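Cross-check.
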Amino acid sequence: MLNPTPNGHGDAIGVVDTDPASKSYGRLIGQTEFPQGDNELHHFGWNACSSHLCPYAPHAHTERRYLVVPGTHSSRIHVLDTRPNPRQPELIKVIEGSEVHAKTGYAAPHTVHCGPDGIYMNALGTPDGGGPGGIFMLDHQTFELKGRWEKARGPQHLSYDFFWHLGQDTMITSEWGTPSMVSQGLNPELLLAGKYGHQLHVWDLRTREHKQAIDLGAEQQMVLELRPAHNPTKPYGFVGVVISLADLSASVWLWYNEGRHGHGAWKAQKVITIPAEPADPADLPPILQGFKAVPPLITDINLSVDDRMLYVSNWGTGELRQYDVSDPFHPRLTAVQRIGGIVRRAPHPSAPARPLNGGPQMVEVSRDGKRVYLTNALYSPWDAQFYPDGIKGWMTKLDADPAGGLALDPRFLVELEQGMRPHQVRLEGGDASSDSFCYS
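Predicted model, tokenized:
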């Protein structure tokens, strides 16, 4: 929960009751406030996960109890212990941004993934606001900074997400922009010039060397969230692209390897296109009025643990889409649920007469594939451009049919107070995007 306003409150981690039998179901039942409110908290994660069981770095004794929370604007890293009281996690360590800068050379940490040999965290760039961005590591028990991960970065300069195929010793990274390119909002000049990220990068996970760049085309701007197949024998995955300069559409691309055991060349192809929707300029924020349309703006995707269902958040049009990707080269749309949106402002069933702003943003899926959670805030400087009336923070839950189908839970709408905005969601026992597996 990030606090973008100077109202005396810090950022926070909130705890929500997800037990349908509980009297406090669908309510905020705990909150750990941070000392400051200038962090811009983003994609936090667990200290331990299934990848600790990999043969070359086994850490079966490591307990999943700590949440590692990066602040993209402050470069601080917060560590919370959830074991003593899961309803009120304890803040046990704060690594100041100056220490992150000094020990890694990076700034603006953004995403946390537990890896086989430690905690991996990406950074958008360097302390001066430029690049390159990249990845650094922390010890998964002491949380001490271990320095930069890359040994030979090749042409990689822009940074965003990262994930891996442990069975193929391969890491995939994506691109957004440096801190100076994103921290003041979307820069239309950079966008129209195709300067935001439009590539995937392939790395050797063991040697930490850059192996290949896959350019999706400069018109494909902002290549963001990566979701590899959970099956360790399947060298493919999905990535969302926020916007196309050709027609304002958004898209999902499949990366894949045609060689045996992931040793061939890596390729990518577009498998989902979501078009922009025409709109009255009077209903649009200034940044979109000249286009007379609402772009979908894919800001997150998530893949169920069985690799069957892909969920796609369209933050602009206010849609969560569900695709059957049993055949990853030919996704099949199975459900669309509308909530919020720049123009549509679709309501929640608990208050059908009240429009909601923001839209489906970060999406998390339970391990059994039956529950899907959404939050509505993206990134404070960008929130202000696309939702100038202000993001009123909410989190909701949908019931998902593993065979296809989505429905908003009428009992579950968490609305935050004091101007707080929700971003990433993690489920206590693990979730679809927490883990990647070494074994089938």
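Helices lie at 97-104, 179-182, 188-192, 286-289, 380-386. DSSP finds five helices and 28 strands in the chain. Passed to J.P. for a second look.
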